[in-house]
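Let's study a protein:

___
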Amino acid sequence: MSPIITAFERSPDRGRGLARDMRVRWALEEVGQPHEVRLVSFSEMKQSAHRRLHPFGQIPTYEEGDLTLFESGAIVFHIAERHAGLLPNDANARARAIAWMFAALSTVEPPIVEREQVPYAEGEKSWYKERLPLLEDRIRVRLDDLSIRLGDADWLDGEFSAGDLLMVMVLRRLEGMNILDEYPNLSAYVARGEARPAYKRAFAAQLAVFTGKPSNG
């Protein structure tokens, strides 16, 4: 039985591939796992039926047999553990890849999301213009360290892993802010992720929801 994931019926990213179900779609494509997608509206997300899957009324969720998961990072981790292709076989390399998964979601993503949301939450406040560069500098602190660590390597720790998948998706949230342009090696890193066939299939599938046109993947 194929796993079922949930996604926005009408994503606020307007097909840009930034909604968090994209992370799960990409992981499933990387490991070659067929799956189904159930689209939910914003109102359905807050109803009891969906909250039984996701207690915070968000997406994505993941159902496979008697297992139900929420949180994109946990779902990607589950997929990576169950299927070959996203975590190394070597125990130490595997542990490092998992560490990068946590780093992407716990260290790099929070300041990016805060900067992303501040125009909507605080755009009319008197302190908005002063606060914006402070938030962007917090992002640069993380990107400085990440850029140094990546150097001229293709991926964070040898071969592509779930750590890279999540890191690329986190960095993609910087689209439109021009901050990533200051880091050529990180820009190239994101481009390498986007060039992967599995990413392209996942992106096409998510874009098809917005356009209403079936993907060819």
